[in-house]
Amino acid sequence: MQETGNGVETRPVVSIISAVLNEGDNIRPLCQEIAAVLGQLPPAEVIFVNDGSTDATVTELEAVRHDGILPGLRILSHNTACGKSAGLRTGVEAARGEWVILLDGDGQDDPADFISMLELCRATIGERAPLVVGVRTKRQDTLSRRLASRFANRLRSRLLNDGCPDTGASLKAFRRTDFLGLPQFEGLHRFLPSLMGQRGVPLVCVPVHHRNRLHGSSKYTNLNRAIVGIRDILGVMWLNNRARIPKRVTER
């Protein structure tokens, strides 16, 4: 909750969620950037889900809250590492806002992009609020990672026909209830355009900033991403093929 000038707490409109694993060195600078844009958003809450970190991640999160950088910061923790999608699911289930913004905890995403993405998300298309996906037009990654990502995106786009050039980008905004209606599995966050699209959620892709990781290294290797990614694509193809979802439900 956010407190107004007269001491009355207001329910958050948007929930900003990040699932983190061993990102202790990146927590404070990222939270400072998030705090800097909160005044330009509707009432918001910030949720960090600690996915079984073994470094100082939780200590840093508590310090950020104690020092007043994000005094209302919510810190949720898994007792063991369950994966990024599980962490995001934990955060979205606990969220109190109608709208959700996801970002990574490594500092590569720019919180300044929250503002335009949320505006697009709340501008409904027809009767539905869209899924807004940030597309990294100028990626600050190694050449091998960029090539691997390009191959994965092209393969996924060809097989799933989801209309999204960069589903691996972590910055996404959507209506909370649209996410909670999806089946849960590790890797889910990379297939939101396809899975939400099957359920009638429009897709909006918008260019976003992408920066070098502040500290530490990625938790995934190119080979790991490729093997798991192909398996997940086949799984999502099966889910989409077997889904029978009505466009409209009426009651008399």
Automatic annotation (TrEMBL):
Q: Which SUPFAM superfamilies match?
A: Nucleotide-diphospho-sugar transferases (SSF53448)
The family database entries (Pfam families) matched by this protein are listed as: Glycos_transf_2
Q: What are the alphabetically sorted keywords of the record?
A: Cell membrane, Glycosyltransferase, Lipopolysaccharide biosynthesis, Membrane, Transferase, Transmembrane, Transmembrane helix
InterPro entries in the record, alphabetically?
Answer: Glyco_trans_2-like (IPR001173), Glycosyltransferase_2 (IPR050256), Nucleotide-diphossugar_trans (IPR029044)
| GO BP terms in the entry | lipopolysaccharide biosynthetic process
- Name the domain of life this protein comes from: Bacteria
Q: Which segments constitute the Glycosyltransferase 2-like domain?
A: 15-179
Q: Which GO terms describe its molecular function?
A: undecaprenyl-phosphate 4-deoxy-4-formamido-L-arabinose transferase activity
GO cellular component entries:
plasma membrane
Q: Which PANTHER family match?
A: UNDECAPRENYL-PHOSPHATE 4-DEOXY-4-FORMAMIDO-L-ARABINOSE TRANSFERASE, UNDECAPRENYL-PHOSPHATE 4-DEOXY-4-FORMAMIDO-L-ARABINOSE TRANSFERASE-RELATED
Its recorded name reads Glycosyltransferase
- Per the UniProt record, the source organism is Komagataeibacter medellinensis (strain NBRC 3288 / BCRC 11682 / LMG 1693 / Kondo 51)
The lineage is:
Bacteria, Pseudomonadati, Pseudomonadota, Alphaproteobacteria, Acetobacterales
